[in-house]
Write a structure and sequence with these properties.
By secondary structure, the chain is of the alpha/beta class. It has helices spanning about 15-25, 30-45, 50-60, 65-90, 95-100, 110-115, 130-140, 155-165, 180-185, 220-230, 260-280, and strands spanning about 100-105, 120-125, 145-150, 170-175, 190-195, 205-210, 215-220, 230-240, 245-255, 305-310. The chain has a seven-stranded mixed beta sheet, sandwiched between helices. It starts with 15 loop residues before the first helix and ends with a strand.
């Protein structure tokens, strides 16, 4: 079995890249109705990760009526299907077209850092349309954006998507090379984008906190990058403003100089901001993501010794 991050040669009955190029030429009003069929196949027919998403919602909102949770679940799949086709459209869209659909409320936050000669760590999550978030940020901001990503399994598709993401100044970097690239370009003023709601590996250092009614592990890593670069840390919130339209808001959650306990504070502030974003619009988060892969160990019984316990709230 190949590792998930390993790319493989494209094969199959048709050319996936050609299909993506064709779909990218379709007008968005045509693609949006097609997303209903994608939703129907994933949610109604295949039931792709539906049990996992339902368990996540039940754990996060135990007192919520079951019917309301089911509406959130259905809306999550509908919006995810729409976001996928929007992303494909975005790979061929112009900068001006994307700027009309993804507005940036306060770009002066980034401009202030640029004028100061300071890099920025942009922390966000799998909310709304994170592909458009990267493309829209590149179209709006006059600063290079390095973003960590996990290579897709099909090599041709991975190359196509990577080049599409680069069109407006973004620089997708495979996760295994991300730290090396940071060290190599540490003297440049850049932005570094991280989808920080991924689940850390069991044996890596992590921060445990209460998040969506559950003990949840978060990466301890963005704060190390912030310390090394002497960078400002910004939470990036994406909100749905209508069908195929989004608004982005930037919120500084930490800036230098950093104290000894800055690491936990940064991760905790990110967790709280992300939680507020999800609670404001639950269907816009990626509930099919296996965020709770393993239970929180107690301090005495942790064999790895890497779990970092958060303060009692």
């Amino acid at each position: 079995m190949r590792p998930a991050a390993e790319t493989i040669a494209d094969d199959g009955l048709f050319d996936m890249v050609l299909l993506l190029r064709i779909l990218a030429r379709f007008p968005l009003p045509v693609l949006h109705p097609l997303s209903w069929w994608l939703y129907f196949a994933a949610y109604r027919l295949v039931r792709w990760r539906v049990p996992l998403a339902r368990r996540n919602l039940e754990a996060a909102f135990p007192s919520m009526p079951a019917a309301q949770r089911e509406r959130i679940l259905r809306d999550c799949y509908r919006r995810l299907a729409a976001s996928l086709l929007e992303a494909i459209w975005g790979y061929g869209a112009s900068a001006e077209a994307l700027k009309r659909r993804v507005t940036l409320a306060n770009p002066e936050v980034i401009e202030h850092c640029r004028v100061q000669g300071r890099s920025v760590i942009l922390l966000t999550g799998h909310v709304c349309n994170w592909e458009w978030l990267l493309l829209g940020a590149g179209a709006h901001l006059g600063i290079p954006i390095d973003v960590v990503y996990k290579p897709l399994r099909l090599a041709g598709v991975d190359a196509y998507v990577r080049e599409a993401r680069r069109r407006f100044g973004a620089n997708p970097i495979p996760h295994k090379s991300f730290l090396l690239e940071i060290f190599r370009r540490g003297d440049e003023v850049r932005a570094y984008g991280v989808l920080a709601d991924q689940t850390p590996l069991r044996k890596t250092p992590k921060h445990w906190t209460r998040f969506l009614n559950q003990d949840t592990a978060f990466f301890l890593g963005p704060e190390k990058i912030a310390r090394y670069l002497d960078a400002t840390v910004v939470y990036v919130e994406m909100r749905r403003a209508g069908r195929g339209r989004y608004a982005v808001y930037l919120d500084v959650i930490a800036e230098p100089p950093y104290g000894d306990d800055a690491g936990v504070e940064i991760v905790e502030r990110y967790a709280r901001r992300l939680e507020a974003t999800i609670l404001a619009s639950p269907a816009d988060w990626l509930w099919i993501h296996n965020k709770w892969k393993y239970a929180r160990p107690d301090v005495a019984g942790s064999a790895s010794g890497v779990a970092v316990q958060s303060k009692t709230r």
